[in-house]
Each structure stands twice: as C-alpha cells, then as structure tokens.
Specification:
The complex is a heterodimer of chains A (about 250) and B (about 550). Helices cover about 65% and strands about 5% of the residues of chain A. By secondary structure, chain A is mainly α. A two-stranded antiparallel sheet of chain A has the order 1-2. With about 550 residues, chain B is α+β, with helices and mostly antiparallel strands. In chain B, a hairpin with a 5-residue loop joins strand 7 (about 335) and strand 8 (about 345). The longest helix of chain B is centred in the last third of the chain and has 31 residues, at about 510-540. The chains are: A mainly alpha (about 250), B alpha+beta (about 550). The interface between A and B is large, with 37 and 41 residues.
Chain lengths: ~250, ~550
C-alpha cells in the first residue's frame, strides 16, 4: 500500500506546501500506524529527568527529616550532584525545545475541560478520549497544561530556591539572610511537595492507556499508534522524518 | 646573619654602583630601625654557662634578680601581664575581671584566700591585700621557664592545721640547677597551673588536664608528643610576655586567617594557621563545610567530646553539702574512678559533693568572644536559678559570633538571701573562721565579705549556678570530627539553639502538614479513580 501513496506526493514539493497539504489530508479517512512519537532525545530527557527527580525527592525527604535511609552528608552530596545534573539537562532541553520548535507542544490550548470531564466521567463509562494524538500535537490539553506548570512553576521554583540554598554563603552576610533562608526553605519544600503530588498523579495516568503499561512502553520504545492519512504516512516514509514500524 | 646581609649590601653598593668609598660611610652610619623577624628555633644561649646563675640562691626572688640583670625588660613587661596582675579591665563591657576579684564555680574567690589560691600566681609572697604588685623582684620566672621539671610552687600563707595534708612533702628545690635549666615554656610549665585549675587535675576546664603533658594523636593532634608536639605558645602567640587567647576577650570570628609571615602576634585562632577555607575546595562536602566556618567555630566539630585523656573533669560542685563529719573528723569519699584508674572524690567535708565527667559532649551556644560575668556586685534573681556566673555575647544574626562548644559547670554556692548577690567565702587560712578546718559558713562568709566594699546582710543561702568554659583544646583527628547529622537532625546537638533555620533540624510544621495533606489527597484521588475504573470495567 505504501507504493500507492508515495505517488501522491510530488517529488520536489517543498516542505511548507507538503505540510499544508498533509493537514488537509488528515481530515480525510485515517488509519493508525505505529510511528515514533517520542524521539530518542525526548526519551533520554524524560527518563534521565525521572531518575534525577526521584533521586532528589528521596534524598531531599531524607534531608528534611522524613526518613533516615541516607546519612545527611551523603544525602547532601547526592542531592547537590543530582541537582546540578538536572539543571544541565533542563538548560540543554530548553535549548532543544526552542531549536526544534517542540516548545509549541506545551502551549495552552482549549479543551482542558473536555479532557478533565473525560477522566472524571467519560473514561469510566467507556467514552472515547476526546483528543487524538498526532505528531503535531503529542499531548492532550490537560497534559500540556500540567507539563507547562511543571516547567514554568514547579521546576523554576525548585531550581531557583535550590540554587539560593546551595549558595547561601554568598548572601548570608545580609541582615535579611536569616529570614531569607526561611523563605528559601519554604519555597523549596513547598515546590518539592507539589512535584511529589505531580509524580503520583503522573504515574497513575500512565495506566490509563489501552493497557496498563501501554504508555510506559511508548515512553520506552518511542513508538505509538498514531492515526494518519495515507498521504501523511507516505510523506513520513518518503522523507524518513518519522521512523515507522509498519 | 644581620652582618652578612649588611656586608652583602655594602659590597653591592661599593662594587656595582658607587665608585669610591664616599657613600660607604653614609651607608654604615644609616640608622637601623626595628624590622619584622621571627624567632630562630634552637636558641643561642646556654644558661648553665652563665656565671651569674652558678650561685647558691636562697630563694626564688634571688633567682629573679639574677634573671633581670640580663633580661632588662622582662620584669616591666611581665608586670603588665594578667599572669601577674590577675586583673583585666574589659575594653568592651567595662567590667573589671580577673582572678583577683571574680567568683567562679570552683573554689570561689581569691580575696581572703590569697595564701592558698596564689599558689598559681606567677610571683612570690602574695598572701594578703598588702602584696606589692610593683616589685619586679617578686616575679616567679621559674614556674614558666624551669626545664628540670623539679620546680614546684608552695602556698604563700598557711591554712588551718587540719589542712596540712594538702602540702606536698616535696624535696627542697635546687635553685641553682633550676635557674640554669631555663628555656621556653613547655606544656609542663603552663600545665602546672592551667591543667590543675579548680583544685586538681582536670577539675576546671575539661579540655586542659595532665593528659596533655604527653598526649597521643587521638587526644590532641597538635600537642601529640610523637607528632607535631606543639607547646602552648605555638598557638598562644604574643609579645612582651602578653599571650593571646584569653577567654575574657577572644577572637571568635577570624576573617583574616593566615595573613603574611609574622603578620600579627596576638591571635590564637585556628584560622591564623589553617586559613578561612580549611576544607577541601574540590569536593561538595568540603565546599559546604568551608561555608560553615563563618558561623560554626572549628572547635564545634573538631572537639567532639572533652576530657578524653583518661582524666575526669568536675561537672558538679555542691558546696551546700560541705561540713559533714565522720567520728568528728573531716573525710572524703572517692567513688569515681576515672579512665587512668585514679579515684576521684565524690564527697569531701571541706568542699561538699562532686560529680565528674569524661568524654563529655559539650554544651553549644553562640559566642562573640566577649565575656560577661556575674560579679560580687551583680544583683541576681534566685528564682531564675541556675544563675549564669558568666555568659558570652553572640546570636544567629550577629556576624561577629559563631556557634562554640563549652564545658558547662554546675555549682551550688553561697549567696546573700536579703541583698541578692553572690558571696565571697573564706576557706583558706590559719584562723577560726576559714571554712576548711572550721566548717562554719556564717563565720567564713562574714570574714570573706569584710575584705570587700560590698555589704553583707548576714543571711545566706545556696543557689544553683552555671559557668561556661569555651573549649579549644583536645582537638581530635579529622575522622573523629562531628558528622553533619550530629547537628543536622531533629534531635541533634544544636536542638536547643533557636532563631535560625537549620536544614535537617527545622521545618515549617504547617507547610509539612499541607504537603502531607496534598500527597494524601493525590493518593486518595488516584485510589478512588482506580477503584471506579476496576468496578465499572467489571460491570462492563
């Protein structure tokens, strides 16, 4: 079937025109194909971030006195190294997001209410998900909102307060330093609790796919079933911009 | 050495720049002003070869007069020293401090007890108010400079006949031999008094006792007899017979650190050798620890416990229990056996009840190096006992203070129940009112207070007091230093210090409550949703 569709795409069509054409074609009859939704870098970003965040959360809770599984000194060392690595990762990912244009995935769009309604009600009574995953829009509106909050509220609150915490010695001479440290501790701890709550819900949400482990497998392999028109499919296969398994 | 330099310098001028000898004369006539230099170890004089010391001295004062023949300035210098005056006018608080007038939590006070207490005065003959502090021939050079180890001091005035057992049965001193032995003070010299303060080995300080005469590495890394083997003056630098490091006014925060060679001679701080960033700067924990040094004294982590050398220190002295007799006679109970096997008194008729401690965890507090004392004149509020006999300034928001370790001494001692001030007591003397021998507080206090301008109501009681002794000795090896978690934990060593947020110890309880609620809420939401999914799926 691939042979038929490729002929629909002119050989020397420029990309812009092709995309426009594709969007038109998407509205027509679509089939699901196993395509790479999450590129290698996105998966590396996600899983290394997950590892670092878990490390930080675990050592951070230890430092805060919630548990005594790690000695304070070791916890400080691990927490600091993990924080620096995460900062580097986030810096690089910000760069990546902007150079690849992927930052647009996180823009807030309408439809949050419909998605929330789906999870609270529709899903339980067997309705279909109101959102269709596509390569241009990998996340539903609720996900975008959640990840955006993660990136512009929880994340910055953590790294900004964390850096201030780490560099306390640079500002501890000021008269407000004692009060300042308390505020830094407040922001850092508060944001950490928000991060923990995010993670709990985030992990649970991974079980809401076709099967319990479907989303996790997708995040590991990068492949998911995406509806695409024949034209779209043909384009990706011809240009090899998106690896496909079928 | 100086001559060599001058010759070189002169040759330089003569042969390189200046033809002819005209300027040579000008160069040699130039006035030489004092320059910075350091003492050359080894010494250049053998005192046993000095004929002036090869005489049959009748007493210590004769030796001193011989010393002063060559050391022309030593007497004038020393008479300004606190070792001689026992007085200190505090430049910050204006208080008059010094052993001469202060009340401590041990034997009490010097006034009216001079005959006994001045056994630790670096002079000869201070037995009452009449001692002449301007007579330099009464300076005791030998207690600090004797290197035979045979020199000892005796009381300047007699005690009650019953107290004669305190006098040691030592052989007569060979003044000539001792005089010829003199050298720079060693730990044995300083320790004669400073290791035995408060009435015996290790009693007073906790970080100073006879175990430091020959300490091993584990007890003190600097004084380790097989290692660095520092004498006291290696750190307690000074000039003109004035030594740095008095607790009355200490450099609690030393931002200067090492400075240039010979930069200053008046600081006994750890930083003056170790600098202000003493830990490894290429590892996270080292950097973090360096960030601590402006708020936490080196001593706090590096003296994890004191009295570690097998010698106990007194932690409680209850004077109110004194005076009990057995068969009409004073007695002692020695129910504490310290690490080196010596039995220490837990009760003595002359002094009351004692408690001892070894490997003691210090008391920690902010410390700005400025001592404030409760003197004889200070009004106290007995309802707020224990009364602090001394305390130091400092607070979390005071950048001139750091967290410092202390020995805290607990004493039960006499005070005026009408006028509310502490009292002097007369314990040493060959008379019918000295407590040691007569065991009568009324007479003892009345006699002691006669020597002061402070009125005494005639009514006394006993009150609990605390006295704080900042620690700086018995610095343990690196691996024995405190771990972070010994302070950074809910139940750590600094749990009683308020006014600052410390990670690991502190939290914002309402924030933790909110956080816990949020996490529980998230779990509840997830659990409810999952249950609903499972149930509804089964129903189809």
């Amino acid at each position: 079937m691939t042979n038929d569709t490729t002929q629909n795409v002119p050989d020397r069509m420029d990309k812009k025109k092709a995309m426009k054409r594709l969007k038109l074609m998407q509205k027509s009859r679509a089939l699901k194909h196993e395509a790479m939704v999450y590129t290698r870098y996105e998966r590396f970003w996600h899983w290394s971030q997950a590892l670092l965040v878990f490390t930080l959360l675990f050592t951070g809770l230890g430092l805060h006195g919630w548990h005594g599984y790690v000695d304070f000194e070791e916890a400080v060392e691990i927490h600091t190294v993990a924080a620096i690595l995460l900062l580097i990762l986030w810096l690089f990912t910000t760069f990546w997001n902007f150079t690849t244009g992927q930052w647009k995935q996180y823009l807030i769009r309408g439809g949050v209410r419909r998605v929330v309604r789906y999870y609270l009600y529709g899903m339980l009574v067997g309705e279909a998900h109101p959102y269709k995953k596509s390569l241009q829009r990998k996340q539903n509106a609720l996900q975008s909102l959640a990840y955006l909050s993660f990136m512009v509220i929880i994340g910055p609150a953590l790294w900004a307060s964390g850096l201030l915490y780490l560099l306390y010695d640079l500002w501890d001479d000021y008269s407000w330093a004692l009060q300042g440290l308390k505020i830094v501790a407040f922001v850092h701890t508060g944001a950490a609790y928000m991060m923990a709550a995010f993670i709990i819900v985030h992990i649970y949400m991974t079980t809401t796919g076709k099967t319990v482990f479907h989303y996790i497998r997708t995040m590991i392999t990068g492949y998911d079933n995406i509806e695409m028109t024949e034209v779209e499919e043909a384009f990706y296969k011809e240009t090899k911009t998106v690896p496909m398994r079928d | 050495m100086l001559n060599v330099y001058r010759m070189l310098s002169v040759s330089f001028w003569v042969f390189v720049f200046v033809p002819g000898g005209a300027l040579l004369a000008a160069e040699t006539q130039q006035v030489i002003t004092p320059q910075l230099s350091l003492k050359v170890p080894g010494g250049t004089a053998d005192h046993s070869k000095f004929s002036i010391l090869k005489q049959d001295f009748a007493n210590g004062s004769d030796v001193t007069q011989a010393c002063l023949k060559c050391h022309t300035e030593a007497g004038h210098q020393f008479m300004k020293s606190i070792h001689w005056t026992w007085e200190y006018d505090h430049p910050v608080t204006g208080q008059k401090l010094g052993k001469k007038s202060l009340i401590n939590g041990f034997c009490g006070n010097n006034t009216s007890n001079e005959g006994g207490c001045t056994i630790c005065h670096a002079g000869y003959g201070w037995k009452d108010d009449s001692f002449d502090f301007s007579d330099q021939t009464k300076i005791d050079c030998l207690v600090c400079h004797d290197q035979t180890g045979t020199y000892y001091k005796t009381q300047n005035g007699p005690g009650h006949p019953d107290m004669n057992h305190i006098f040691r049965d030592d052989p007569p001193k060979n003044w000539s031999e001792i005089a010829q032995s003199v050298g720079l003070p060693t730990r044995n010299n300083c320790g004669k008094c400073h290791f035995n303060g408060g009435g015996g080995n290790g009693v007073k300080h906790g970080d100073l006792d006879q175990s430091l005469i020959n300490p091993d590495h584990a007890l003190d890394i600097h004084m380790d007899a097989n290692g660095l083997n520092f004498s006291c003056t290696a750190c307690h630098t000074g000039k003109n017979h004035q030594w740095s490091g008095s607790r009355y006014k200490t450099t609690a925060v030393d931002p200067v650190g090492r400075g240039e060679p010979g930069f200053r001679r008046n600081v006994a701080s750890c930083e003056s050798c170790h600098g202000t960033s003493p830990h490894e700067e290429d590892e996270i924990v080292g950097i973090k620890m360096n960030h601590h040094v402006d708020r936490v004294a080196c001593q706090t982590c590096h003296i994890p416990e004191f009295s570690r050398g097998g010698v106990a220190t007194k932690t409680l002295w209850d004077w109110s229990q004194g005076g009990k007799l057995k068969d009409g006679k004073p007695y002692k109970e020695k129910d504490y056996t310290q690490g080196d096997g010596t039995h220490r008194a837990t009760y003595a008729t002359i002094k009351g009840r004692f408690e001892w401690g070894e490997n003691v965890v210090p008391y920690y507090n902010w410390f700005d190096g400025v001592a404030h004392y409760t003197t004889l004149e200070t009004k106290i509020d007995p309802s707020k006992a224990p009364i602090d006999l001394n305390h130091f300034g400092g607070a979390p928001d005071d950048r001139n203070s750091r967290i410092w370790p202390f020995k805290r001494m607990h004493t039960v001692q006499a005070y005026d129940t009408e006028l509310n001030n502490l009292l002097y007591t007369h314990v040493w003397g060959d008379d019918d009112s000295s407590y040691w021998g007569n065991y009568n507080w009324e007479k003892s206090i009345k006699e002691a207070m006669k020597h002061t301008d402070v009125p005494y109501s005639g009514k006394f009681g006993f009150v609990d007091t605390y006295m704080y002794w900042p620690l700086a000795h018995m610095v343990a090896p690196e691996e024995e230093a405190l771990a972070c978690s010994q302070c950074h934990s809910k139940d750590g060593r600094l749990k009683h210090l308020a006014g600052f947020y410390m990670p690991g110890r502190d939290n914002l309880p309402w924030l933790d409550m909110l956080g816990a609620l949020m996490l529980l809420g998230a779990f509840a939401l997830v659990a409810a949703h999952a249950t609903a999914r499972i149930i509804l799926k089964k129903r189809g």
